[in-house]
Amino acid sequence: MINFLEKALEIQSELVAWRRDFHENPELGFEExxxxxxxxEFLKSEGIEYxxxxxxxxxxxxxxxxxxxxxxxxxxxxxxxxxxxxxDYSSKIHGKMHACGHDAHTTILMGAAKILNSIKDKLxxxxxxxxxxxEETVGGAxxxxxxxxxxxxxxxxxxxxxxxxxxxxxxxxVKRGVVNAASNPFTIIIKGKGAxxxxxxxxIDPVVIASNVIMALQTIVSREIPPxxxxxxxxxxIHGGTAQNIIPEEVTISGVIRTLRTEHRxxxxxxxxxxxxxxxSSMRGSCEIKIEESYPCLYNDDYMITLVESSAKExxxxxxxxxxxxxxxxxxxFAYFSMEVPSAFYFLGVxxxxxxxxxxxxxxxxxxxxxxxxxxxxxxxKAAFDFxx
Length: 389
Fold this sequence. Notes:
This is Amidohydrolase. Helix 1 (4-10) packs across helix 10, helix 2 packs antiparallel against helix 4 (102-118) and helix 6 packs antiparallel against helix 7 (262-282). By secondary structure, this protein is α/β, with parallel strands linked by helices. The chain is elongated. The protein has 10 helices and 16 strands. An 8-stranded mixed β-sheet has the order 1-2-4-3-5-16-6-15, with helices on both faces. Strands 10-12-8-13 form a 4-stranded antiparallel β-sheet, with helices on one face. Strands 7-14 form a two-stranded antiparallel ribbon. It has 2 domains: 4-180 and 297-388, Zn peptidases (Aminopeptidase, 3-Layer(aba) Sandwich), CATH 3.40.630.10; 182-291, Alpha-Beta Plaits (2-Layer Sandwich).
């Protein structure tokens, strides 16, 4: 029996050093050149084969005995945010920060690679290491998949994790079924006829039309989606007009759709088009609608998440595994992998109130309890080993 936690604790100082180096030197999506070089230097030092995908992404492989293949994924990009916490390892790059824990994800994947590579003669198959760029922006996973990250050899399953500041360090969170929502950003241009503000009868007011559209869009969720199934339509921007007494020619509104079911995703998109077209035409205006295809829903395969849960119990004990009842309306590009092969995605606790590590992700004070790093490494190693066994 291999004690993966013991092995992970043996390299804890390396894990902390890697994580702090990445944290001090954050890079945004598809700009992770330094990060990528550091990963490649590590892989070369360990004698692990790799290839570059999706510009700054890396796909490496540890070859064991057999053809069965499990992939482990870590994302590598940071956020455009000023780091305002007081720490020796705070970001050195103005306006950029690892405010979502991808520095920890990269570190954990490197740690898992180091340990699994050291026991590759005991692996009943292969382990792919997927270092994904641009998770926060366009979803680097889809580009890596397109360029063959899941092929040669064919990947049978993928495991990923995300640090979570609401779960205390030493614990993990597990959610069955749908984990994250699908996203569809949209832009609507409503066209009217300009006129003097004192003579609205001579124009077609796109501001009034846009107001009606915004209110009507909310009824799609409140009156057409079952109340037991979460969905969101958020209008985030409204732009139009140049002066108080001028009715403009057009107004642009933009927002995002979030859904948790594939059928609801299709339905809400269809209804948005119908509602906007209906209102604008009935009020004598016209419109242009663009709905983008962004991140899909992230689904956990029942067998795979059970395997991860079982492996984690041996590392941290059953009492440290928290069952999450509610999915997140946020998005996660690991979803692209979950749409291709059986996948498991879980949450690694990094909260420590005694250390003041309580601040939310995507915030300027975000940090993690680094004691969680070897736990993440050990669980990833154990789950991969168990899958291949």
